[in-house]
Amino acid sequence: AGRNPTRETAALLRRLGQLIEKNLEALVYRQIRENGRLISEMRPGTLAVGSACYYYAGLAATVHGLTLPVSY
User: Fold this and answer.
1) Average pLDDT for consecutive 10-residue bins of the chain (72 residues)?
2) How would you class 68 by CB atoms within 10 Å of its CB: exposed for 0-12, middle for 13-18, buried for 19 or more?
3) Distance in angstroms (rounded) separating the CA atoms of residues 47 and 16
4) For a tag site, which of 10, 16, 67, 72 has the least CB within 10 Å?
């Protein structure tokens, strides 16, 4: 079987989402130290990044090779 870039991309994005969830507190506190924002701001933002990884993993897994012409 050959490589499946969309499946690989989806798997990598899901793994990134898992790592973000697993290391949430460390990531939140690192961001607090780096930019001085509040925990109440950073925790939801960091969770949102993890959620976005899962969302885009789902999109990558559903690519069907269709493209739409765009006129400029």
Assistant:
1) 80 97 96 93 96 94 73 82
2) exposed
3) 12
4) 72
